Amino acid sequence: MSKIKRAEGRAVDGLRPMEAKVGVVPSADGSAMFKIGKTIAIASVRGPRKLHPKFLQNPEQGRLRCFYNMVSFSGSGDRVRPGPNRRTKEINLVMESALAPALNLKQFPNCAIDVFINLVQTDAGTRCAAITAAAMALADAGFEMKDMVAAVAVGMSGGNVIADLDYIEDSAEDGVDIPIAMMPNEGKITLLQLDGKIAPKSLDEALKLAKVVCKKIYDVQRKALADHYTIADEPTKKVTKKATKKAKKEAKK
Amino acid sequence: MSQNRIMRDHIRALLKKDARPDGRGFLDYRTCLSVEYGVSPKTAEGSARVRIGKTDVIAGIKLGLATPYPDQQDQGTIMVGAELTPFSNKNFEMGPPSIASIELARVVDRGIRESGAIDLKKLCVKAGEQVWQVFIDIYPINDDGNLRDAASLAALAALKDTLFPTLDKKTGMVDYYTKTKTKLPLNDEPLEITVIKIGDTFLVDPTLEEEEYLDARITVALLKDGTICGMQKGGTEALSTEDISQMVKIAGDTVKTLRKVL
Amino acid sequence: MGKLFVEERQIVIPGDQLATGMDYLPAGGAYRNGEDIRSSVLGVLTMNGRVLRVIPLKSQYRPRSGDMVICKIAEMTNNVWFAQLTESRDGVLTQREVPEYINDGDDLSHYYNYGDYVLAKIVTATRTSIALTLKGPGLRKLRGGRLVEVNPARVPRIIGKQGSMIGTIKDKTGCRMIVGQNGVVWLQGSPQQEGVAMAAIDLICEKGHLQGLTDIVGAFIDERMKDVTDVEEVSHNDAGKMHADEEQPTRTARPQRSEGRSQRGRRE
After folding, report:
1. To which CATH superfamily is domain C146-246 assigned?
2. What is the Cα–Cα distance from B45 to B62, expressed in whole angstroms?
């Protein structure tokens, strides 16, 4: 493999710096933020809830619906026009296919599990960031899941198989973008798309790389989910102080 | 959706005992009040995030070039949008912009536009040919009441955060990747305060619980010197002129709490 | 033969490998996948001998016969009410299952109206329908007080073993309190008393996965009650007896989640 120059001296299999946080939308049933490089995705889960209109209901199982949305100021360049378009509708579909295998939808007849994802800022890898955030949000909501779903784009740039393309690599003429989602413990792929030209041997290499890097995404997911509940040891002190102050104010009135 | 009778009666019963569910005074803002600048620095010309208690709203600014309106050849334009979806509140509708999101956007718009805070003439690049359009878009992350105040504060903070992108005057193309150091010129800082009425009581900064049972609401847009530059009444009950005067006065007294966090 | 990868009270996420080999058995929140036992939820691992169970931190309410639930009257026809238990489940309440005698042609809303909340009991629950009753001790339309929504996974912690936690909250705050298995809590006290009770409930919801919680909560309430100045007397009903709500209905005649086998480990 030839040495290539990636931004900030990244290795071919290097991921951009990541950040993840769970429970960022307090009123949601489950929620999570996932940031990779400059791409920021926030997922908010509402469900299970009744699915309307009635003709959409499925008495055998629940329906997972994803709503991917780029906020108007999240695009590189002009303002993103609000509202669904062909691209986002396709992303919704592939996201649903990426996440549904992990869920047990038969538990929720006639219901919908709705996942809303806002991309606050984008720098390539958005559908993967959205899936990664959505999986954390679903776990946060307490849904039974066979496995987590971790997603990242692999691909090619300058003739090399690389992981986690940024916007420049993605838009390059010879760039190949392969968004992949995996259930890490099952070792199975649930999202696979490809844009660009690639030799079959390179594709094999890319898939192998995907397995390795998806595990890294999964580690970030695990830490965020576990941290959300161990960090909860802090609140007592804060709550008492504030509450005592408030109550004292009340008493003075 | 039928109302929750227990909570409707409870909020009123609390007010009779001079109490609110979270223990605040009637005219107290929530104490967890903060503004964060630059939440989407790579792609937005300006952006901000406002938290009022658990209410969490982000706003972002995009600047674009366009031809001016025929009757305002030397003026730029402002457009305000808002998306209220189940992302932030389970009861918001899905699908095309609901009347709630349209109203929120227009109320925030009114305050900014009527205040003249943005000098539209300063947005002119070449009269009759090219002007800057300022797009202000508001996205609630979590709705725990008082989205209007949070949205207006987020919009203003985002405007204050805004820097012009580079404009190649020869080609007329905008280079969004290279920001200039030129801030968006603001003449004033309009902010909106919402005062609600439940029974005979006026409340400031309602939580989601309180908003659900309001009788009437007034949102007042105020300039730094206290001049009113926009108003909107909501709710299904009528207000007397005394009520309105009182609510406007309360708004005027409260806005300094928001100004402090800018 | 078998290997364990986790320890008691560790937080695990879906897909985490808990153990391998046939030595261990999966129960609620855990499942077997070939040689492995994996977690199926985000939760706290507990071990009871060889049985590995994951207690979820949040979950959806699963209605069971005998459960007491607090639900809102959402719809009605000329002879049946529909009560909302959760965002996804409604229950049916027929005329025969209310204590009042209803004449033919009576408007049902005169008895239980849209938006009213009732403390009801589940008679039967299937995958798609729930039958409710208001006939039974303490079951009734709720009046006054306020409601708090909690995640159903926290309900056992808020009640506590044999009602120890809810007892602590009631005794120390002076509030009346009922917890519905569907995650709706009803409280009644002075504004300040209710405030303390709600803060205690918040605390349990945040830290419900920790041990020794009853003492922590007790101490927390004591501290906050020091600043409480207005206290409402707990009222007795006209017959001079305490309302039946003082008896917190707990789930009986079913294995508690923390011991024995539960039927929920099975994947459909």
Report:
1. K Homology domain, type 1 (3.30.1370.10)
2. 5
**What pLDDT is attached to residue B1?**
61
- Per-residue pLDDT of C180-212, as tens digits, reads 999 999 999 999 999 999 999 999 998 877 888
Return the CATH class of domain A7-252.
alpha beta
At A199-249, the pLDDT tens digits run 999 999 999 999 999 999 999 999 999 998 875 454 433 333 444 445 455
CATH superfamily ID and name for C68-141: Nucleic acid-binding proteins (2.40.50.140)
Torsion (CA) B37, B43, B45, B50 in degrees, nearest 10: -30
Which residues have CB under 8 Å from A78's CB, separation 6+?
A: B62, B64, B176
ipTM over 0.90: yes
CA atoms within 13 A on the CB side of B80: 22
Q: What are the boundaries of each domain within chain A?
A: 7-252
- CB atoms C115 and B2 under 8 Å: yes
Neighbours of chain A (3+ CB pairs under 8 A): B, C
Burial C169-181 (b: 16+ CB within 10 A, else e): bbebbbbbbbbbb
Separation CA C36–CA A119 (nearest Å): 37
Per-residue pLDDT at C112: 96
Kindly provide the b/e burial profile for residues A226-246, where b requires at least 16 CB atoms within 10 angstroms of the residue's own CB. Answer: bebbeebeeebeebbeebeeb
Question: Which residues of chain C does A108 touch, with a Cβ-Cβ cutoff of 8 Å?
Answer: 60, 88
Strands B130-142 and B77-82: parallel
Q: How far is C118 from chain B (nearest CA, A)?
A: 10
Tokens 């958005």 found at: A126
C255 vs C259: CA distance, rounded Å: 7
User: How close, in Å, is residue B24 to chain A by CA atoms?
Assistant: 8
Q: What's the predicted TM-score (pTM) here?
A: 0.92
Cα→Cα distances C90→A157, A167, B48, C122, C126, Å: 54, 48, 41, 11, 12
Chain B from 16 to 75: CB within 8 A of any C CB: 17, 19, 21-23
Residue B60 has pLDDT above 60, yes or no: yes
Q: Report the chain A residue with the minimal C-alpha distance to residue C10.
A: A226
Separation in Å, CA A108 to CA A135, B35, B217, C146, C180: 18, 40, 39, 30, 21
